[in-house]
């Protein structure tokens, strides 16, 4: 995470400048721009990532001062701008039903499960991909969130949730529990046909 933040928001943006060219004005403008449209899809950069980028830059420039490459640290005068709140578009209940019905009618059980986990119990995409069968208590209709699948520098990794509150147990309805049970049986059958192509630990 540290390396990707440094590369994406510092090296790729201002890495072409020499140390002596990094004035407070240039750095302030850089962070102002990150706050407005600094993410990879052109939306405002999250306050968490913006703060991390600033900390990494300030520390690097402090090291440059200590080693005699700079007289003073230009990052100390930066004021992080307020982050513009993201505008979210939510699905209506009817749109959610349409999505689930389409996935069910197209006979795409995995897609139906992923949509159900997202729309009915609010799982994040990475949390859904990180679910293992051992995380599901069918008798209690419960799902335990223990891990998440993330993409870092074009690599897929399984990570523990960032915060203690992200480890949680969620109740699911009987329809979703039944759909999971059916898919588990289908996965076992697929495992017999393709023993090396189906990973039956994960959903």
Number of strands: 5
Mean pLDDT: 89
* Cross-sheet strand order for the largest sheet: 1-2-5
The number of helical elements comes to 7
C-alpha end-to-end distance: 26 Å
Pattern of helices and strands: HHHHHHEEEEEH
> Level of helix content?
40-55%
Low-confidence stretches: none
Largest sheet: 3 strands, antiparallel
Apparent shape = elongated
Query: Which value, in Å, is the CA radius of gyration?
Result: 23 Å
| Helix/strand structural class | mainly alpha
- Assembly state of the chains shown: single chain
Strand percentage: 5-15%
Short description:
The chain is mainly alpha-helical and 203 residues long. Helix content is 48%, strand content 10%.
What does this structure look like?
The chain has 203 residues and is mainly alpha-helical. The longest helix is centred in the N-terminal third of the chain and has 20 residues, at 47-66. The mean pLDDT is 89. The chain has helices at residues 2-14, 24-37, 47-66, 93-105, 109-121, 125-129, 174-193; strands at residues 136-137, 142-145, 148-152, 155-159, 168-171. The strands form two sheets. It has a three-stranded antiparallel sheet, with no helix packed on it. Strands 3-4 form a two-stranded antiparallel ribbon.
List keywords for this structure.
two-stranded antiparallel sheet; mainly alpha; 48% helix; 203 residues; 7 helices; 3-stranded antiparallel beta sheet
Question: What is the topological layout?
Answer:
Blueprint: H1 2-14, H2 24-37, H3 47-66, H4 93-105, H5 109-121, H6 125-129, E1 136-137, E2 142-145, E3 148-152, E4 155-159, E5 168-171, H7 174-193
Antiparallel strand pairs: 1-2, 2-5, 3-4
Helix pairs in contact: 1-3, 4-5, 5-7
